[in-house]
Each structure stands twice: as structure tokens, then as C-alpha cells.
Specification:
The protein contains eight helices and 15 strands. The C terminus is likely disordered. The structure holds FE2/S2 (inorganic) cluster.
Length: 293
């Protein structure tokens, strides 16, 4: 990743508490690991010591200083999963992928790792692949999981995604991409926006606008707060003219690169978002998707 790209990431997180972790997360999301050059660039551009930056990068297990594969397979070996035969699952992944935990395949497709607890002990054994959780996994499920990962989980995707909807969302004012890789989920896209409302201001990550259901990160806003979204790059407001058919609130309007709009309800409690393709000529007949989250 170029120093210029890292500079842009740092600018997005400027002024946020805990921004170093967010900066490193975003770099890792894009590069699949934190290179020495990237850590040095972050240190120099943020004015922090390299020791500090390196300390954070090595403290959290989620960060990797070695390149990871396109698919990250994490098998839980926490106590609850362990007693339900999770070691057998690890063995099966080892056998089928030809990897030991901590290794990445030569073709860069898979990294296998074991983790201590993924927080859903009652459903163990748990395997997480690219952020997707598989519960009560048995040896016989391993082939299916690997096959699904190789196919980029296409079968899990919505018809819109499979039909190849334009996935890159940009600011309609400055044209800069608002799409970022989903945290810990490989290539799934989410959006990073500035949001303000109810006297608060925060960065918000919006997931699932083209997938299984929209969700917004953070507990910064009270339910029903009217949130005003803006571009983290040019700071322009993303207000749109349409009203949400579900709750009547204004909808923010974002643009798809290549044409079309993505409308997101400004009411924090309402999870309505709508995709409109080639909007100018067709006020009627939007491809609307009711989502929850
Ligand atoms: S022990 Fe596996 S999810 Fe907690």
C-alpha cells in the first residue's frame, strides 16, 4: 500500500479516539496484513513512535504481520469447542488444505489458524471463514465449507449481488469511494460514513446494503434519532430528496460508480435502504430491498 493511500486512511480517522487501531484495521482489511513499511508509514504520518505502533499491531491477535490468504479459516479450540471434538475439525482442515495452523497456502488462497473462543460457545464447534460463522461443525462439513469459500460464498449472496450489482458506492459530490472491505470478512463491502445527530457525531460503518441485511455499527445514536450522513472525504452532506416509505424520514443519497443510487434511511431505528438503478428516467419502479438490522 502506498504512503498516499495510508495518508487517506489516516485522514478518515483523524480526531477519533482509538484511531490507531482503526487505521491498522483498515490497512489490514485492504492488504490482509500489516507490513513493516506500512507500520513505519503510520508511525511517521501520525507522529507516534514506531514502538507504539508496533506494540498495538502485535498486542491484538486480529492483526497479522505476515501476509494472510484470501480466505482466513479460524477453528475455535476454546474449551467448549474442544470438548466437542474441535481438534478433529482442525485435523480435517489440515488434511484438506495441506496446512498447519498459522500457515498460508502457497497460492495465497487459504490461511488456517486456531483461536481460543469466538464467543458462541453453545453452538460449538465453531469455525469462522472470512467472518462467516459455521456452528456445530463436524468433520463431514469441512469439504463443504472449503468449497463454499472457494466459490466466494456465492450461494449465500442475494440475487442482486449474484446479478452483479455495482458494488462500489461513491460520494455524489467528490466521487471518492465510500466502500471499504467489511471488517474481518474478506471482500464483503461495507460503507464508511460520517454521521451526526442528537448532538453527537461519529463515524458509522454500514454493512449489508447489497447482502443479507443492512446493519450500522456503533451505539452512538439513540433509536429514532434523525442522523445526517456526510462524506468522510469532502464532508459534504449526503441528503437526498426521497422520503423513506417505511417511516417517512429523509433518505441519504449515495451514488453507485457507473450509475444508480443507494438510498439509506436517516432514522437510526429504521433499517430501510433502497437501490435505484438509472434513477433519472425512472422515478417509478425502483429495485427496492427491504432489509433488517
Ligand atoms: S469455546 Fe468455541 S466459541 Fe467459545
Amino acid at each position: 500500500m502506498t504512503p498516499e493511500a495510508i495518508e487517506k486512511i489516516i485522514a478518515v480517522h483523524a480526531g477519533n479516539q482509538g484511531s490507531l487501531i482503526s487505521i491498522l484495521e483498515d490497512i489490514q482489511d485492504r492488504c490482509r496484513y500489516l507490513s513493516e513499511d506500512a507500520l513505519r508509514t503510520v508511525a511517521s504520518l501520525t507522529g507516534r513512535s514506531l514502538v507504539d505502533v508496533y506494540g498495538v499491531a502485535t498486542f491484538y491477535k486480529a492483526f497479522s504481520l505476515k501476509p494472510r490468504g484470501r480466505h482466513l479459516v479460524s477453528v475455535c479450540l476454546g474449551t467448549a469447542c474442544h470438548v466437542r471434538s474441535a481438534p478433529d475439525i482442525v485435523d480435517e482442515f489440515k488434511r484438506q488444505l495441506g496446512l498447519e495452523p498459522g500457515e498460508t497456502s502457497r497460492d495465497g488462497e487459504f490461511t488456517l489458524e486456531t483461536v481460543n473462543c469466538l464467543g458462541t460457545c453453545a453452538l460449538g464447534p465453531i469455525v469462522a471463514v472470512d467472518g462467516r460463522y459455521f456452528s456445530k461443525v463436524g468433520r463431514k462439513d469441512v469439504t463443504k465449507i472449503i468449497r463454499a469459500a472457494k466459490a466466494d460464498f456465492m450461494e449465500d449472496r442475494s440475487p442482486e449481488e449474484r446479478a452483479g450489482l455495482p458494488a462500489k458506492v461513491v460520494c455524489p459530490h467528490c466521487g471518492v469511494s465510500l466502500t471499504v472491505p467489511e471488517k474481518g470478512a474478506g471482500r464483503e463491502a461495507s460503507l464508511l460514513l460520517e454521521a451526526s445527530g442528537g448532538g453527537k457525531r461519529a463515524q458509522v460503518r454500514i454493512s449489508g446494503v447489497l447482502g443479507a441485511g443492512m446493519s450500522r455499527s456503533g451505539n452512538d445514536f439513540q433509536p429514532d434519532t434523525r442522523v445526517r450522513y456526510s462524506c468522510p472525504n469532502c464532508r459534504a452532506g449526503l441528503d437526498g430528496a426521497a422520503l423513506c416509505p417505511e417511516c417517512g424520514a429523509e433518505m441519504a443519497s449515495l451514488a453507485f460508480e457507473g450509475g444508480g443510487s443507494l438510498l439509506i434511511c436517516s432514522c437510526w431505528g429504521c433499517a430501510n435502504c433502497m437501490v435505484r438503478l438509472n434513477v433519472p428516467a425512472a422515478p417509478a419502479g425502483p429495485d427496492r430491498k427491504r432489509v433488517t438490522g
